[in-house]
Amino acid sequence: MAGSSATQFPAQEPAGSQAGRGRGRFYITTPIYYPNDRLHIGHTYTTVAADALARYHRLRGDETWLLTGTDEHGQKIERAARQAGKEPLEYIDPIVEATRQLWQRLHISYDDFIRTTEPRHKARVQQIFQRLYDQGDIYKGVYEGLYCTACEAYYTEAELLDGGRCPVHETPVERLQEESYFFRLSRYAEPLLEHIERHPGFIQPPSRRNEVIAFIRQGLQDLSVSRTSFRWGIPVPFDPDHVIYVWIDALANYITALGWPDGELYRRFWPADVHLIGKDILRFHAIIWPALLMALGEPLPRCVYGHGWLLIDGGKIGKSRAGGQVIDPVQLIEKYGVDPVRYFLLREVPFGDDGSYSEEALVRRLNTDLANDLGNLAWRTTGMIQRFLDGRIPRPPAGASDGVLAAAAQETAARVEQALDRFDLPAALQAIWDLIGRANKYIDEQAPWALRREGRQARLEAVLYDVAETARVVGVLLSPFLVETPARLWTQLGLGPDYRPAGWQQGLEWGQLPAGARVVRDQPLFPRIELDEPAAREAGDGVTAAPAGPAVAAAAGTKPTPQAGTAAAAGPAGAGGGAAPAGQVTIEEFGRIELRTARVIHAEKHPRADRLLRLEVDLGGERRQIVAGIAAHYRPEELVGKTIVVVANLKPAVIRGVESQGMVLAAEDGQGLALLTTDRPIGEGSRIR
Ligand code: MSP
Q1: Ligand 1 centroid vs 161 CA: distance in angstroms?
Q2: For the whole model, what pTM was predicted?
Q3: Which of 210, 290, 572, 634 has the most crowded CB, counting CB atoms within 10 A?
Q4: Which atom number of ligand 1 is nearest to the Cα of residue 289?
Q5: 40 catalytically annotated
Q6: 195: annotated active-site residue
């Protein structure tokens, strides 16, 4: 009899051992989603993660197959259709179409999209059922149990919440009794445990593995695998009063889509390298599915990876729990662009754990990681190449580079590979951002503007070449994750619009930026976004950051008089000293304004406003970007190296699309404008009292 002992199953490598497999095959799946409603950002999470892993493997040269689809049978769908006054397919079709469009907008590179209502699927599910029946793994009996319609699953008393409610949906379950076919799941408890023990990577992350082991150890009961209570499903081939339990129908998609039992794709791609799923459907994938495969005598997937949930206010995302947040991925893409949405999903939540979703967190990631770190690296680099090297990628003389960034890039690639071999997408992105941070820091340390001043041309060229080449490599490393940004980045670096690395390894080889290529400096890669951007902030009429809310209210930078602070102190009026008479501030009120010295490390024209400069300043270890309305009075290069005075605790404001994280102080007399500075050298970040 098939599947009675673990030793019958084809031996496999443990999952997660892809490292070093080199050119091979990679088959990855997402759950097939229920088309009873439009998908939200939570479903998008799994799919984007699967896409990133598929893209990575393709780039590595692995023959890759990414499967997704829709799970279209079952009572839940039947009811939703009926409530809408439609036939099931009539109800489902537009939702499936919207799902496909969503994946298209997110550039999901799926190789196949399976619908469980397709004949290719239905016929094979019936074949599976028949075979299991014929060999005695499925038998007829009577089932009585507590059933949650939304889950399409029975629960034991012990699993229910108080008041007999479903642990997932928190709605009451129903007691159902029906004639049913059963799958002999109990037979597979031992072989399954043995398999899990022998293959530590089979269920990941480890916490999920432990959960499954504990569950199986309690003993597995045979599973009811047919229903007579509704019609919308695949009929049992030899008893058409019964439809096949939707989870058997659904799980089978992973092999029916490949043409099990003898299709070409099946031979090429099975077993799957990873079924990526949310933890909500872990038991189906880590117990029922492997047991079915054992019964069929087919190899088990290498890994079932149950990631955590994206939560809103600690609860599952749903219509009832959107918490005022945008949860429609299409709206988010329209508002922020495809790459910011993809980046947020892949970066924000430690993979495997739960994480919080909020639009604010998305905007924070966009502003700090994408606009500030990555966008700035490209903008600064191309800016300096423009100014110091006539806009052309240099050919530094041999030996002029210190090799620091080349080594950092190589080390990063190894970290990214290791992280992706354990499916840890956020760790891979963290490694890439460490490299971006290193490159930004390298610019500060090497101070190309000083090299230029000192006439050290070879060093200047070497530094700028290495920084630009690092940015190119960052584009390669980001290729699995982001779909538009790498090409935009390469274009800025002067690589033509058709540049695509031939593969991962080839792309990572150092030194591919061609000397003489002309950098393109159209606009920063990412605009900074403010969630509720008051119109006033964009005004930025003169000097620096326009006042942000009740912060410093003086015309920024023009008259840093004590009066400037009055509005700032208007909040907790007169805290610690009583309110001052109109027109005056108390010393405590004045003390709330944090003035500090800062050294200008970089200055350039604002990309969108002639009167503004964008400064990067060092506040004593902390780097800030400040927009200042001083372009009519200072040339950018005059400012670099100066110690100036800034309001350090001014609420950031976006000025013509660039965030200003503070304000510079200057005196103005109608004739001209002079920046405040100190009368002898003092460390950057020093407090001014
Ligand atoms: N149709 C079944 C799956 C069958 S697979 C053989 C199903 N569909 S579902 O539409 O409910 O999708 C469930 C999956 O969507 C989860 O396992 C997870 O991958 C994803 N997510 C749905 N909401 C999610 C979050 N809030 N957070 C993370 N993932 C979420 O179950």
Answers
A1: 21
A2: 0.77
A3: 290
A4: 6
A5: yes
A6: no
